Amino acid sequence: MSTISSHQHFRWLNLLTRHLATSAGNSAPVAQAGxxxxxxxxxxxxxxxxxxxxxxxxxxxxxxxxxxxxxQVEAAELATKTSSAETQVAHEALTKDxxxxxxxxxxxxxxxxxxxxxxxVRLIINPRAGHNFTRISEVLAVFxxxxxxxxxxxKLYGGHTMELATRTAxxxxxxxxxxxxxxxxxxxxxxxxxANGKRQPGIVGVLPGGTANQWVTETSEPIDPVKAALSxxxxxxxxxxxxxxxxxxxxxxxxxxxxQRQQKKDRKAQKRKVKQPSRVENYFLLxxxxxxxxxxxxxxxxxxxxxxxxxxxxxAAAEVLPEKHAFPIExxxxxxxxxxxxxxxxxxxVILGNTRRYADVVEMTPDAYIDDGKLDLCVITEGNTxxxxxxxxxxxxxxxxxxxxxxxxQCAHFLITVPASIHLQLDGSSVQLDDYLSKADREAxxxxxxxxxxxxxxxxxxxxHALWVALPETYDNTLFEHSRGDPRGRPGNNSQVDxxxxxxxxxxxxxxxxxxxxxEIQREASDDLVNTxxxxxxxxxxxxxxxxxxxxxxxxxxxxTAKRQTGETKSVAIRIDEDATVLSRTGEHVPHxxxxxxxxxAEVIVVxxxxxxxxxxxxxxxxxxx
Length: 626
What we know:
Helix 1 crosses helix 16 (516-536). By secondary structure, this protein is an alpha+beta fold. The chain is built from 16 helices and 29 strands. The protein is 26% helix and 30% strand.
């Protein structure tokens, strides 16, 4: 930023005085009461004070993590401190299913649509060999501009994400954000659910940073992390179901003498129950799978995933597929009066869906809802050789298999019995059977020469209304059975939606000029102001813009600007409060809500102070022509 001379300084003050006076329809300069009761000219802030710049703090991923496992990053220097009384009120509001000042309910709706309002936020990052650190400073700048106080925690080892999420829930954060893929989201969900009864009714949000990002696609959240951060600021809150898995029982083949004689007699192996239902349980937000998909996932290299993305799964499938065969399975529903067998036979794959998509593309459970208290199940059965091969290839290459060899079921509680050798996955992450077993059962299982001889019964339960999640304001509620119309309960046409946002669609009506001389002065002032802003302001190319919820009107713009001396591009976030002046390209005052009309790729001119987080607190913003 170039230094402003005293002559330019005086000219700037005079220009602002004239502009503010004439735009208000007055023929004389605005006056204020002085110390002795006498009027004195209005003094605007200097441009030099309003446009001091500092560098953005860049965060780099360390090669070998050292030091404390929790990295605290204060991402809001001006965050409002809430009194203890206000904190108690906020907590009581949360426990009563309210996450905003105004909530909208309809009779029979199991989903409450609320604007999300947060102050205390934790961002849990799966670094993925440093890939998810590349834009972290941009994300933190956006959150800071919204007034969020954000702590950042980085996963350092297996299981660490779940530990961090549990701690976050117990510490009463308003929002915990999973920055990673669906596996990271799963770990955060399980961590929140495992908070030992101390869990606060916080919200789980997601920033996409993985290979598939299925939850992001299901809820229409932007895949770009900065745009996703903007979407989170303007999110609604919904309560959703979760799937839960437990090991119900293990059955080992009977190897004693009596069992052997009985086996020889009727050629049917006797089996015995050795374990009561396991206390270990895991949750899934998206899907669970038994069979080929879990085997492929378990054989997929993490390094390869980071290098080639989804192609890593295809390479693993080519290696695993020739070794896989149909396996025996029994599927039962559990009701109050006992279990009822729904289907039994030979199958290659079972998918249980809490949502609809599988691998982010194909809808394996197209009738699933995330608020109906049920799980949807799809089993790919064994057919003739050619048909079976076609089914498996369709599934692996993310196309829905033919209905002739697909069976679908829906209920709240499933009991699925398969050989212990069959792989299991939850939300795209491989899960080991041994993790659900006691030490005695693990040792017993290890002594069996062939795990295929041991049968394991998994219990899958739908857990209704188990978790609060952040949902984009633009989401169309496809996964919600009981919602109707616009996500906020409003009619879906743009004009009515815009009316809810201050200033959008409204026209600025300039005051009638008193005479021709007044109009001429106003035009000259506007021209001079525009030229001064163009000469001295930050020129910011827009990535996205949202209105942040809160008691006061605030808009957040994400974008990037170039240094004048070097041309180096830096990312910034612009905070536009009620006291900022918003202008058109011709220098006329326009409503603050017109900021939402700015499209990505457009350029705005902003004058204000930039802090070390890369946030510009705007004094003056000049919008592009619409």
